[in-house]
Protein 1
Amino acid sequence: MSKEKKRDPIKVMLRWTVILAVVAVAALLLGNAITSYRAGVLKARQDEAEKINAKRDEEYAVALAEFEAASQSGANLAWPAQKTEGWDVVDLTNYPLENVYTVTVNRSDIMNGGMLLVNQWHSRPDDFNESELVSIMSYVGSRNLLYGLPGSSTQLMPVAINALNECIADANAIGLTNYTILEGYRSMDEQQQLFDKQMESLSSRYSGDALIERTKRYVNYPGTSEYQTGLSFRMRIYKKGDSQVNDQAFSTSEQGKWLAENSWRYGIVFRFPLTDYPLPYTADKSYKTGISTQMNLYRYVGKGNAAVMHTLDLCLEEYVEYLQEHPHIAVFEDGTLKYEIYRQYVGDADSIELQLTGKTAGYDSSLDNMGGVITVFSYY
């Protein structure tokens, strides 16, 4: 029987050392090859990206030079094409104002221009000035065709009364009369009284924060009511001694339907649209306004703003958001420029440098209560 040959442990160790060294060298070489390959691919991609970026930089430099040359020469830059029929809104976000100059104004000068957004999420500014409010019964601006209910002392901002006077005059001309403002401006005290009264009526069923939140479903918390802008008003038809007229629902009356269809032409919009209210084709906006109660509440915003809201089917909340995303737009009617609208961010500054275009002298500016100023330039 033969004896098994005993292995030399030193030789075995040396053999494995050599094998491991070879494997390590191979792995190192393979790793270096992979790293080199990856570096080559990465460099190729970087080179390609640099070429693309360089090309874009060249194109931008050319476009910028053309723009600056056109601006210095006073030439009008070509805006995107617009529709030749009907109303159209063209986005000019990438087109700056032309022939720009600035005018310095105070916040108070443009507080009540029409675009102040007040709702349950955006309370009325603390520096809101009530001094411009006037009684609709004694207003002597334009021909006054508006009336409050007997004994009322309804107040509104003059811009709202002037717009509504123009609107009602055209309604009267086609035989639609007896328009009456049921309610207008509410002071902070009046809104507080309404809120407290509603809260008292619910106090037997709710308490604490639950009572306040429940009350806010029916009456806006003081400072967050649309009525506190002086730009909104609730309408009805009223004729002294005629119960048949007075009992008719405004929204279904000929006066109500005409106002709902045409008020935007005068700078007035229906404030809280609901499904099929005030018109059969009205889209629900309660998810944006926070108001789901039917009420004949109208709001002055100005003709240019109202034209955009009507054309794009936007409520006031949606419109302000739209201008935040598209701060420069143009509004056309049958291919003719009617308005240019520009929103600039100003924060809560007291002194504001308004940016204006020298292309037209007519403009109206208003704070939007979202940190911006909305300026409408008129071209008619």
Protein 2
Amino acid sequence: MIKYILPKCVLLVAVIIQTTNGQLSETPVENIKCNYCRKIITQDYFRLDNKKYHQDCYEKHVQPRCSFCNNAIENTYNIYNQKNYHSDCFKNFILEKCDVCGAPLEADYMVDSWNNKYHDYHLKGSETCESCGRLIAKQLTGGGLALNQDRHICNICSGSLVTEKSDIKYIKNKVMAILQNVGIVNMPRSIPIKLVESQIELDRMSTIRLGDIHGYTKYEYEKVNNKTIGESFEIYILSHLHKIVFEAVLAHELMHVYLFKNNIKLSSQKREGFCNLGSRLVYEDYNDQNIIGFLREIYKPNIFKPDNDLNNNIWFSLNLEEIREVTGEQFSEFVIFLEDNRAKAPLPKKISIDVPNNHLKYAITWYAISISIIFYYLYFRRKK
């Protein structure tokens, strides 16, 4: 059995420092020097942090300005990343915005593993995707669907779910190949794999209570005189799992089959740990994606090559400036020329020129012209 642990949200606190601007005081009784120009203050002055300034000196040289709008700050303001902001400028333009409702994130907020940020109160009355952990919301995932009362899937993951028996055969062959690469070879050829719709039903099958499980392996055997004369395996996996998770669960359960088949007895903890290695092999297979090819610098097109047609997405050559204009991304000056066809890389448009080469027609034409000339020659010669 394997339980896929969803990524948890991290609670962040936005730190905002508020401070107060300088205050205007009445004309001093005693002689006081301006802390900016060092001249005697004879009129009303501004006081800030126990320092005193002429009104003109303060407004031109000392009074803080908003780093967003560049206007003078007169009242309480915010300091963020060592910059000053009007409270309204900070709230409306600097603060992070909620990805669900668009309002500023003024208090504690949630950040999920996909860097989506939203107020923590959006969690109340909302569901999270059991596959990716995202909050199911129209703004984040385009909505989602409820498989039952306890299981919910977002629309981002819904296209990658394993729901049909036809999907299982390909996945089984792939996972078996991964396990065989590390020596897990003594396995039955035919193992029924069945989808279970309900989490409750799957939990009832297991004799080991580890919380909500995603898979279960049923092993039955018959012994005569302490010798096994018949055995059978069945694997049950929760339906509507993400394809990658389904592969990891299947690998885990196939490792259970391997232990049963080879009569390897381990403690419960060691047995589950051993089978989790199968899941890890699946995840590592997704992480280890090798690209085989030649690394070369992008070459400049010759004068005979047409210009790229950006409007119709037709490319005759690789131009970094044009690529940046279309994608908004910065790319390296080097490109990998693939050695195989496994990756679907964009290919330049092929230019073909259809030059007719009908030799038979040419031959007939010239023979006809030659015969005509001969007839004309004989005709005029005879006439003379």
Protein 3
Amino acid sequence: MRWYIMSSSIVEVNPNLRLLGTAHVSTKSVEAVKQQIEEFQPDVVAVELCKSRYDSLVSDRRLDKEGLLKVIKEGKAPLVLLQSLLAAEQRKLGLDEGQQPGAELLAAVNIAEDQGLEVELIDRDIQTTLRRAWKKMKFIEKFKILYSMLGEEEDEEEINLDEILEDRDILTDLMNELKQFSPGAGSVLIDERDSFLAQKILQIDPEKKILVVVGAGHLNGVESYLKNSKPTESLAELEHIPKKSLVAKSIPWLIPLLVFGLFGFFVYNGSGVDLVELFTVWTLANALFAAIGCIIARGHILAVMTAALASPITSLNPTLAAGWFAGYVQLKVAEPTAEELQQFLKLESLGSFWSNKAGKVLLVTALTNLGSMLGAWVAAAGLIGGL
């Protein structure tokens, strides 16, 4: 197979297959999509979108109170925050360009549909991607992301999108930086999706002319996979969400078993250990750390009190979480308006998560749970140290 490199952001695999690398927030990328469809005259336009992301682009998708409550109950607050964080970073880049993230992908779909061309959505479902990324990330990686959210936003060096699109070495460096910052997330967000995109492209009828529109950061990876045609994982494997192992499922029960075991041991043996003191250590450690987490999220005083009261109890029952209760109270006492719920999906900076009431509910839920978990481990260590 002969390959033609037409420009740094366009790769012609063969006369029937052309790849166009874009910046999801660039005005020039929108124009490039229009130009390439007109010039290449494809039969099929394949875009780096999944069904849910496509739906969110073509409709004015809103978060409602029921949806927010469902996120709290199902323990999905960290995933929603991660997704919103990534979207906010993209949206921040697009402000100066006057484009919303994915504008060039939507333009590709609209033009293709207007001209009666086939449209293929070739990306993996965003929820699958985020869940796989979350599961692959080590604790230290999750902590680094949390720290980046809590830290003050610094004045960052201005990013030249045109320069990035024209220099694939810069893109490679940026992708490598992400992998160094979070190897687990990087492998899922970049390498796995490169493989997935390439395999979906190869499933399209090769007799038809195909224009593939993907983020420029995926251009090198997709090109490499198409050249080698040897993906390490099949589509089914890449769409699979790994279940927790028996060991992982058992870990949340270790602390309750340890606490009840210690109390039972002391009572049975009539030990001279002060049970009231041990109970106080357990209660204070759990309450303090959960409350601190809620305070960092700038939760309402009633949510902070709820976090402190719930944590010593929920830490003994892994089927419950202090953050659920604190988040629910935060939702009730500082209820987001319809406008704030809608704006949450359009936040443009990390600081906006604290000023938006819907974002604050999710932060209260996630950070209270984190504080409660740390408090339980500290309390358990204190109980063992008191023997």
